[in-house]
Design goal:
Layout: E1 14-19, E2 24-29, E3 33-37, E4 45-50, E5 61-62, E6 66-70, E7 73-79, E8 86-90, H1 96-103, H2 105-110, E9 116-122, E10 127-132, E11 136-141, E12 150-155, E13 169-174, E14 180-185, E15 191-192
Antiparallel strand pairs: 1-2, 2-3, 3-4, 5-6, 6-7, 7-8, 9-10, 10-11, 11-12, 13-14, 14-15
């Protein structure tokens, strides 16, 4: 049993938590990315990874690398040469014209709902998927390590052929044979596997 409870303020709304390598926990928030390092019994300490680039809600995923989307695009957290140090990298320039109106906060609130409503890591396909409120999905496929992902854009509509199909709830699971199984549901009470 744990005999520790505590509180560490991060100064903005938390968008996700990710266990990093070693003894670090990433805190992805609206205004930046921080981390907590150290042993619980010895007094953990906070650090800053990215003070100015926060995380878009519902976009944080772990898939061997730690992915999230900010107002600057799709990013990841990666280890640096120094033990316990991390930095960020952005790699969505080739789809920036599609992504920008969907992740810029002012556009999200001043127009139709284009914003991120969900994300999903499909590990067996090395994919990071972002679902948007207008029925579009952006899929980044990592073909080779060290190279930029290949992006594709999908558009989902309901059976009537014109109403956008939005994925309100998504979840990925792994079968006993190691195969990914994706689950999704819409606000019209339909579910998919």
């Amino acid at each position: 049993p744990l005999a520790f409870a505590g509180e560490i303020g991060v100064g903005s709304a938390v968008r996700g938590l990710m266990q990093l390598n070693g003894d670090a926990l990433a805190i992805l928030s609206e205004k930046g990315v921080s981390m907590i390092q150290g042993d619980v019994g010895l007094g953990p300490y906070a650090g800053v990874i990215s003070p100015d680039v926060g995380t878009v809600e519902y976009s944080a995923q772990s898939m061997g690398q730690f992915m999230y989307t900010s107002f600057r695009g799709v990013q990841n957290l990666r280890s640096t040469q120094a033990y316990g140090d991390f930095d960020t990298a952005q790699f969505s320039w080739d789809v920036w014209s599609f992504l920008r109106p969907r992740v810029q906060t002012s556009t999200f609130f001043e127009s139709n709902n284009l914003g991120v409503i969900n994300s999903l890591a499909v590990r067996n396909k090395s994919q990071y998927r972002l679902m948007f409120g207008d029925g579009y999905q952006l899929t980044g496929t990592f073909l080779r390590e060290g190279e930029m992902p290949q992006y594709t854009i999908q558009y989902y509509v309901k059976a009537d052929g014109s109403t956008p199909h939005t994925w309100d709830v998504v979840c990925a699971g792994v079968e006993s044979n190691g195969r990914d199984r994706l689950f999704g549901a819409s606000n019209d009470n339909t579910g998919y596997v």
